[in-house]
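Why does residue order matter? Because the sequence determines the fold. Keep that principle in mind as you read this record.
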Amino acid sequence: MKETRSVEKTVRDIRRRTRKKYSSEEKIRIVLEGLRVVLNWSVNLLKLKGNYINI
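Structure:
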């Protein structure tokens, strides 16, 4: 049991150290891309419902 925990902890430590670190610019780009996808989805939904207003 102790060996299993040790192996699991080692794997977690390796994953933690090798995890990708995002810069502030990359984080902003990721959020904006997500917002763009949501906005496109919302616009398409409104078009389908007939509530679309041309902005």
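The longest helix spans residues 24-49.
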